[in-house]
Amino acid sequence: MAGGRVTGLQEAVWDAAKSICDSCGLTGANIGCVKRGCKAVTHYPCALTKGWHLDTNQYIPKCNLHRIT
């Protein structure tokens, strides 16, 4: 946000629309692992079924490979 306005939203939507989910292979993946160097992206329902760690209090997603670290 900048001055009460959301910035970068349009770019984020377009990026998600082009991102391919590592779990199901469909486009629209909008959750990415926070581990440096990890390129895993997924949809929310796919993250739940694949064992991602989704910290909803701090909004920190970790893929199933990095959920411990």
Provide tags for this entry.
two-stranded antiparallel ribbon, alpha+beta, 14% strand, 69 residues, single chain, zinc-finger
What class, by secondary structure content? alpha+beta
Query: Major sheet: size, sense and barrel closure?
Result: 2 strands, antiparallel
Strand order of the largest sheet: 1-2
What is the ordering of alpha helices and beta strands?
A: HEEHEE
Q: What is the C-alpha radius of gyration, as a whole number of Å? A: 13 Å
Low-pLDDT sequence parts: none
Q: Give the number of DSSP strands.
A: 4
Proportion of residues in helical segments: 10-25%
Q: In one word, what is the shape?
A: globular
Mean pLDDT: 88
Q: Which percent band covers the strand fraction? A: 5-15%
Please report the number of helical segments. 2
- End-to-end Cα distance: 29 Å
Keywords: Metal-binding, Phosphoprotein, Zinc, Zinc-finger
GO biological process, one term: regulation of transcription by RNA polymerase II
InterPro entries: EPHD (IPR034732), Trans_Reg/Chrom_Remod (IPR052440), Znf_RING/FYVE/PHD (IPR013083)
GO molecular function, one term: zinc ion binding
Architecture overview:
This protein has 69 residues and is an alpha+beta fold. The protein is built from two helices and four strands; from the N terminus they run H-E-E-H-E-E. The protein has a domain of 42 residues. Helices cover 23% and strands 14% of the residues. The longest helix is centred in the first third of the chain and has 10 residues. The relative contact order is 0.17.
